[in-house]
Design a protein that fits this description.
This protein is of the alpha+beta class. The protein contains nine helices and 31 strands. β13 and β14 form a beta hairpin. The two termini are 45 Å apart. The mean pLDDT is 96.
Length: 622
């Protein structure tokens, strides 16, 4: 049975303690730790912050670029658990894979560096005493897992990660760790869907429960508005036969809300659904409070609609990236980023190129921001310089390798985990299932047909599905865009194509491609998910030359002229919100500099172009 991915919460029946802090740490270059029983305790005296991206701290290359196994350890005093409770460890993420030991015993394993997982430690905890948690992590890249890349073995035997993507391969325990105590009989999962009719709304929900001993009998559901006022209350039976073998049940119900306060773009209103699981004698067995925003998302008549009103997406492709923090989630950076985004008039971002920490989505729910949530399917064209190779017509037979079935299984599993984790965030308006893979072959078509089909099964809200296509995925050759509800394009006319001295040719080429898309798109809207130009903040030149702030401005002005000519363009997410760290190379100057803001969030000149433009474009139209 899958883990419950519900976000940890403290309430009448549930509690947790965060284990963030300083953990013991060791590299394991020879991968001998498991043989030498490091699961019982690590050698050495190195310490590491949790959460943290270890590469950011070291002053030598060997450790900064470390690739292979690494270990974390912490000791926790765990008091005696209450009767009928279970004790769980929850990791926000460990990049890219982990084995978890408690008191030397393996309690869980997880593949994929950007999604949470839970380990049940109840059976191995020493109550009222010290408990040792050890994590074996690994940050190697291959073509069977997401994201894709390779490992080079150097002459001296050390490993070096070779990502097929343009961001630093940060690793470690990069998100929070929770020690939770929740009831054995518990609420495991919640699906919520909406139907809006004029001023009223219908909230349909399906709650999965699981138990060990006696089955729960009833579920009491209360809906409170943003002021905490009780709006609706119902009592429903738990269908204990839904999955008798696994001791798991389901309760379906509907709440009718008159005069519903809708969750709108940049005007968020959140309700709270309180769930109380009751026994035959009405004892509370578990409870959970789920925030929700009443809103619908559809694509109709070539428009992306939120609550039946067309919205134009304005904003950014982002990264989880900051100086010293690397990919670590930090509330203050998130706050700063939302303020910067709002200042430019943005309403949307894509979690390029992986699911972000859960707290980003919570924040977006409160801010009324729209999110295109992306699975870490990046690097599916076997190129260290995908940004240069894109558009050259180079074909790498990526989906024709013998390991592709393993990749597909991981792709579908991670899509499922992402949707399970994020499905109840009103901010999430679409799922992006790919970023710039090969899409021109019949095998790629078969591959993505299966990914899209699975995602449609996974999402109870049936949100729009999409994916970001690079230039080789041309209107004539791309075999995968027909699976999408709206088409996302990453295009670099005026940078990788016809940049610099050829800039004057870029506009026409760009328009030509748009005319060709219009012929094949079949009514689907198009959203730009990447367009941008590397810019060194403070570099000025007239006329604008590549890398100068003036060039970035001219680049955006030209791109916007093209987008404005084609009314089927329904969104523009520029690349990138801020400068971010990448691997080293002749194309990167201490990272990618396509940011509208610097890595420390100072605006470049182009930020004012966006601000001026986006404050003129309404967020939603009648
Ligand atoms: C970006 C083909 C373009 C790929 N796109 C992916 C993104 O991760 C890169 O950072 C290009 C760039 O700036 O080159």
């Amino acid at each position: 049975m899958n883990d419950s991915l519900l976000y940890p919460e403290i309430n009448e029946k549930r509690s947790y303690r965060m284990l963030d802090g300083i953990w013991k740490f060791a590299f394991d270059e020879e991968a001998k730790g498991e043989r030498e029983n490091w699961n019982n305790g690590l050698p050495g005296q190195e310490y590491m912050p949790v959460p943290g991206s270890f590469a950011e701290f070291f002053t030598d290359k060997k450790r900064k670029n470390y690739c292979g196994n690494f270990w974390y350890e912490t000791d926790v005093f765990i008091p005696e658990k209450k009767e009928g409770m279970k004790q769980l460890l929850r990791f926000g993420s460990v990049t890219h894979r982990a084995k978890v030991f408690c008191n030397g015993i393996l309690v869980g394993e997880h593949e994929g560096g950007f999604l949470p997982f839970v380990c049940d430690i109840t059976a191995v905890v020493k109550p009222n005493g010290n408990n040792r948690i050890v994590v074996l992590g690994n940050n190697e890249l291959n073509e069977r897992t997401l994201p894709c890349g390779a490992v080079k073995i150097k002459k001296d035997g050390t490993k070096l990660a070779k990502p097929y993507f343009d961001f630093f391969n940060y690793a470690g325990i990069q998100r929070s760790v929770w020690l939770m105590e929740i009831p054995e009989t518990s609420i495991k999962d919640i699906d919520i869907c909406y139907r809006i009719e004029q001023k009223d709304a219908e909230i349909r929900f399906s709650v999965v429960t699981e138990w060990t001993g006696a089955s729960p009998k009833q579920l009491c559901v209360k809906l409170r508005d943003e002021d905490g006022k009780l709006v609706k209350e119902i009592l429903l039976p738990v269908d204990e036969n839904a999955d008798a073998e696994n001791k798991s049940g389901r309760t379906d119900g509907t709440l009718y809300v008159e005069d519903a306060k809708l969750w709108q773009v940049l005007d968020a209103h959140l309700y709270t659904m309180e769930l109380f699981l009751l026994s035959a004698d009405d004892t509370m067995l578990d409870c959970y409070r789920q925030k929700l925003g009443i809103r619908t998302v559809t694509v109709r008549d070539g428009r992306i609609m939120v609550n039946d009103q067309p919205v134009y997406l304005k904003g950014y492709g982002k990264h989880e990236d900051f100086d010293v923090l690397g990919r670590t989630f930090n509330w203050s950076i998130a706050k700063k980023d939302f303020e910067c985004m709002k200042w430019t008039g943005a309403n949307c971002f894509r979690t390029s190129h992986y699911p972000y920490a859960e707290e980003w989505y919570q924040f977006a729910d409160e801010e009324g921001f729209l999110i295109i949530d992306e699975v870490p399917a990046v690097g599916m064209m076997r190129s260290m310089h995908n940004f240069v190779d894109a558009g050259t017509g180079k074909y790498t037979y990526f989906f024709e390798t013998p390991t592709v079935s393993e990749l597909l299984a991981n792709h579908i599993r991670e899509t499922g985990e992402m949707i399970a984790r994020d499905k109840n965030h009103p901010s999430v308006i679409a799922f992006s299932l790919l970023n710039e893979p090969e899409t021109t072959s019949e095998v790629s078509r078969e591959y993505f047909e299966k990914v899209f089909e699975a995602a449609r099964r996974f999402d109870p809200q049936q949100r729009p599905l999409t994916g970001a296509l690079e230039k080789n995925s041309s209107p004539e050759k791309c075999k995968c865009f027909p699976f999408m509800d709206f088409i996302c394009l990453n295009r670099y006319y005026g940078w990788y194509i016809s940049g610099g001295e050829d800039f004057d040719e870029a506009e026409e080429l760009f328009c030509d491609e748009m005319v060709r898309w219009d012929r094949v798109r079949g009514g689907r809207p198009i959203v730009f998910t990447e367009f941008g130009a590397d810019t060194i903040a403070g570099l000025h030149d007239l006329p604008g030359t590549m890398w100068s702030e003036e060039y970035q401005k001219e680049y955006y002005e030209m791109n916007f002229r093209v987008m404005d000519r084609f009314p089927f363009v329904q969104g523009e997410l520029v690349w990138n919100f801020a400068d971010f760290q990448t691997g080293e190379g002749i194309f990167r100057v201490n990272g990618n500099h396509k940011g509208i803001f610097t890595r420390t969030r100072e605006p470049k000149s182009a930020a004012f172009i966006l601000k001026e433009r986006w404050s003129r474009i309404p967020d939603r139209t009648a």
